Amino acid sequence: MYNADDPQCVEKYSSAITLSDMEIFIFPELLYSLVLANIMSPLLWKWRKDPWFGDMKKMSEYRRVVRTKQFIMDRFDFNLDLDTWGLTTKEKELARFSDYIDESTLAQSNALFGYEGDKYYFDLDIRRHFGLDKYTSNVIPFWKTETVEAMEAFKYKKGYPTGAGECVSLSTLYAAAVFVLADISLEKIHLMATPLHSQNYIDIKEGILTNNRRIVTKNMWFNGTELSAKSRRALENEQVIMVANNYGYIHTLYNNATMRPEVYNDFSNNLRKYLSVTNINFDTLASFLRQNSGLQKYFQIVHSCCGKPRYIEIEKIFHYEHSSKARIGDNTQVNLLHEIDEDEYYTSPIPNRIILNELESFFKDNNLPIDSDSTIEKLKSSLKHGCYNVEDLITDLINYCKTEPKLPPADKQWESQEPIKLDTFKSREEIIGYLDSIRSRHPIADLAFMAFRDMKRAPWKPFLKASLERNPVSVKGAVELTIDQAAEKLAKMGNISIYDTTRMAQPDEIWNYNRGDGLEKAICLMNIIKGRTPDKKVTLKGDGSTICVSIKAAKEYTFQTNKDIELPKEEDFIF
Hints:
Strand content: 5-15%
Number of helices: 27
Oligomer: single chain
Distance between the termini: 18 Å
Number of domains: 3
């Protein structure tokens, strides 16, 4: 629990405010604390009243998740601007966390410290895709995770027509929204973080992944489309650094895990079932070829036109799929072939190409379990062809049909933690009351109130430490302004917080969204002053409606506040 005299504890609690990629990696409790903070958010409970969710009780679990996903997609863009929350340095971050990790270990699992992924990601040039390639020196972005309020407030930031959020922000929002809006039990929601991605596994039907701005069912995972290929990348190629749910977490870096071993075992088994077909069939082969365009040149399909056989390259058919509801491999295949103009077909077989229809007959006549040795031998005999290496093709096909996720190893010291049980509560107030009641014995629940930013329930010291040490955007934004001009700019911003009641925004949220309560503006001004002159004596005082920032032997700046919060004491600024 929180201890103001323990520097490491203060560091962890302050990290629950800024929630950077690095901080969540070092303190895995923070991932689920943000989920709980979002569950407590009045914003999600306000969304429940939207007409979009009017018929939810009549829907299946899957349809409720789909409905929730679409609502979130309509409100939030995926934000890949890594400069949104400013820059720090590798040396500074390593110094903060030197008691926990060294740089060589970090480079194997953190994208900001050199992680590239395996050969797949080298080929893809993944660092350039994510904009990491420009950070070649010691300077790196903070890459912070946003609360749902901060995500919603992106619509106030220049260049953003709607809300936005980065990958972890979206995954934690999905987890909270699926619980609050779709009424899916917390027991079924599992968060997974890799060095470059964060996604959730929802254990309903055959399994669902929430993946940035889409959901992926098991059928979608194996349909071979470009979208599915992108969805598969992380679990096919990256180490899962941590898994978190309402029972706790497990992390590759740490020997201790707070999740019950049987819970982790059930999750692992169910995820593996989701990532594997039971039997390889013709539809599976067609989807495999759809995703592997380099192999399409070895296959053709024969189709009866006016009672005569006609032949066509399979890549042409896949092209026609883009404008059709029909597709190769299922019972709509004949419809697709009828849609293709007759002059696209040949009157005789195309040389050096396997006729896919003959393989369709083979799959109908053979049972091909994914885990059977006989399956490989049968596939070799049926797919043998002189134009490619059949061994390589079979290996790639088996890998396509069965992804083995690189999960944290289960040989941990299991420290059973009280599960967080919210399913029986029907209101936001009941949930907040329950989480408040277990704070003294549950570290994730306690950290959730820090991430929730409720400064009547959370300590000031960690909030101020985060505000004055890890908010470089406002400092840089005011670099060409005098302190008087910075204070004037803040005063002219809209005097409304993005957070309700006694919850507080950070300085860079004020600056990015051009709005804030007077108390938030005052702390933002303090951050600007301290950013220029760290040793300058600056104090904060107020009378309930007015907040005053005082620079010793210089000047005072006043702001109007509607936040009914007891102001921090002088010792809260010492860290």
